[in-house]
Amino acid sequence: MQLLTLFYHFNKVAGHRTLEQLIQAIQGNHFKDQVARIRHLAAKGKGQQASNLKKQLPAFTVSGHFDGGRTLEHLVEYTHFIVLDFDKLEPTQLEKLKSDSRQDRFSMAGFTSPSGNGYKIVVQVDSDAEHHAEAFQQVRNWFRDNHGLEIDRSGKDITRLCFISHDPEAWFNPNKEVFPVLTALSSTKVCHPDQRSGPVHVKSENQKPTANSQSLTAIFARTQSKTTYTPGNRNNFIYLFASKANRAGISEADTLAFAQQQFPDLDTKEIRQTITSAYKHHAAEHGTAACHPRRGPATSRTNNNFSSPPGELMMANAPIPDSSSLIPVSADLNDLLLTTPLLDDQIFLNLPSPLLEGCQAFDDPRERDVFLIGALAVLSGCLTGIEGVYDRRTTYPNLFAFIIAPAASGKSALTFAKQLGDAVHKSLLQENELAMQQYRQELADYKLLMSNYKRGKTLPQEPEKPPFKVLFIPANSSSAMVIKHLRDGGGTGIMCETEADTLGNVLKQDWGGYSDLLRKAFHFEKISYSRKGSNEFFEIDQPRLSVAISGTPNQILKLIPSVEDGLFSRFLFYCYAVQPNWRDVSPATGGINLTEHFSRLSERTLEITRFTSDNPVLFQLTPGQWQNLNERFTRLLQETNAFFGTESLSSIKRLGAILFRIAMTLTACRRFENADASATATCEDVDFQAASLLVEAYLQHAMFLFEKLPREAVSAFNQLPNRKRELFKKLPPQFQRKEAVQLSESLGMSESTVDRFLKMLTEAGWLEQQEYGSYDKVTKLTK
């Protein structure tokens, strides 16, 4: 399913979703209250106020997938969707249109607009972007003639936005017919659409292979793995192919020559225009990714290069010569990172201070998300007076967070998250200075007493040197120094680094190998340390360490070399990429001074820390929240086992504890807001809901990473596709066992594997077995 682009403030890209996901969001309650206020204002005749409030809603482009902006220059892929906007309907007209659209042969989705007196209908067409206006007019005429209603002409623009709405009766039906569009090029087609399902591969004897033929062949095969060359999608296919060739540094002339051989059914002028457009729009990306011949079989990898997603290898039966000897270009991973999910907007509506004010400082949704995950980890390390009981064990709020993105992607938001703890850190340093001053005075007094000491008198007692307390522990410390810092800090501390290499390099040193220390600290297990020759021994009963680090995709291997490494399941992950974009850095843009803003929030964190320390509290969930948690993770455990296997289950089990810790962190902040000094604190539903939404999002990011890390420390990156997910996606809504077996053959799955998979899906609630060998899908896989 094509991805549509979400925007905030009309032009700021907030993420990408399928049409089905957007309809589900409209059916849900995420925007219920905001849309209700809009409709209330409109009903009261306060149209301008309603319009202003509506503009605060996120909006999406039905007809296009955009990156970096909302102009045609930023169009990545045409979705073939047309949106029809029916405005100012009478209640009877609205109800009739709702009913009629569901029955209409071409309408595939519909929902009520935010105003409450309009309706949106989405139709899929078989034409390309250059014929969008023609397609819109023909679809518009069809609906006007068949339903007798006028339609807003704004849908003729590919960049047209639709605001998110709330409509429990919104619907989506992907099985509707595709609207056939008559275009001026229809008569020039070489063959009938029904006669072809892919490009014709003909080598002209008059055209010699270029020096880049092998690389172009690899790119061509990789493009086939992402989209299909079929009627209605041919120009999109060529555009995507040309964009990849441009990133690989191949000249426009060579790409055109290759394309003319591969697409003899298309007019040369049409091919040239599409390729020129791709090279023009992505000129800044020319040569940013290399494509090289592979030296070994397609199924083996000997280099740990975090550059390609699973499932991007050439298929053995692809109609391309020597496809098994080629390797994908590195831009593909970046493409996938661009589409990882943003955090749900509902999370940010009712966060406690200082998280709410911190998140509001960021206009970019990725920076906002990065700040929140880092802030949760930092705050969790500041809260020394709160504890709870999870799985019959005392637990604390401490979290491990890892942010993964290419360079210059906005990871610097983590530095502002770290700044939340600055006031606490400085207060500890000030306490250290005062304690040292007192120690020096006591030591001087001791020395004076010793100089006057006479035998037989009481021997003066030497003062003990005070511990040196810090909040932030440098990640380049040895394991012994980390333990010393934890001991001096009463068992607590935070490691916060913006470069994962700092920690990863230490883990590779004999003296700094504290991977085991991190694993034990996550579970608050006792840590012991002794040094030879000095009779020095000490231990920390319940170490409370929080970790927040960021790095590039390649850096993760230094810290977590495989999914089987115990650290993988202990971290919250947030993986992403952004399109290159320069923002106005001049003071003229206005806005708050982030340094001053987070300095003030740091003082707030210090107040929360002192309040929690002075008023210790036992955190607890309500019976209903415990039931929700148990049911949620029962479902997630079954689903993850079905699609990712048993290796992924440790992540699910620890995510339950992480949800509890996030809720504990939010509750500690909420408790300070309410000046609640009682000895017990029960999680509010709003905080439990936020914690639940967060862990579901972080699970998606963890499973994204799970498919790309090696399965064992000595192996290379896993490049095999997730065959179970691919099979599930290919299965129709209703199917027979034999259909599943037939589809699985191309994925290399045996019948017995398919049978076990179908059984697991049925037990997990993804399938219903109506009778022996007959299945219905219950849930569609969208992530």
Which helices and strands appear, and what pairs or packs with what?
Blueprint: E1 3-8, E2 12-18, H1 19-27, H2 32-43, H3 47-54, E3 59-61, E4 64-66, E5 75-78, E6 81-86, H4 91-103, E7 107-112, E8 119-124, H5 132-147, E9 161-163, E10 171-172, H6 213-226, H7 234-247, H8 252-262, H9 268-281, H10 331-337, H11 355-360, H12 365-382, E11 386-390, E12 393-395, E13 400-404, H13 413-419, H14 422-451, H15 479-488, E14 492-497, H16 500-507, H17 515-522, E15 527-531, E16 536-540, E17 544-551, H18 556-559, E18 572-575, H19 594-614, E19 617-620, H20 623-644, H21 649-673, E20 680-682, H22 685-706, H23 723-730, E21 734-736, H24 737-745, H25 751-764, E22 767-771, E23 774-777
Parallel strand pairs: 11-19, 13-17, 13-18, 14-17, 19-20
Antiparallel strand pairs: 1-2, 1-3, 3-9, 4-5, 6-8, 7-8, 7-10, 11-12, 15-16, 21-23, 22-23
Helix pairs in contact: 2-3, 6-7, 7-8, 7-9, 8-9, 12-13, 14-19, 20-21, 20-25, 21-22
Describe the structure.
Helices cover 42% and strands 14% of the residues. The strands form seven sheets. The chain has a four-stranded antiparallel beta sheet with strand order 2-1-3-9. A four-stranded antiparallel beta sheet has the order 6-8-7-10, with helices on both faces. The longest helix is centred in the middle third of the chain and has 30 residues, at 422-451. The radius of gyration is 30 Å and the shape is elongated. Helix 2 (32-43) runs antiparallel to helix 3 (47-54). The chain has 25 helices and 23 strands. Strand 1 and strand 2 form a beta hairpin. It has five domains: 3-172, no CATH class; 201-337, no CATH class; 345-421 and 592-706, no CATH class; 423-452 and 460-465; 723-777, Arc Repressor Mutant, subunit A (Orthogonal Bundle), CATH 1.10.10. The model is unreliable at 184-209, 290-331 and 712-721 (pLDDT under 50). It has 783 residues and is an alpha+beta fold.
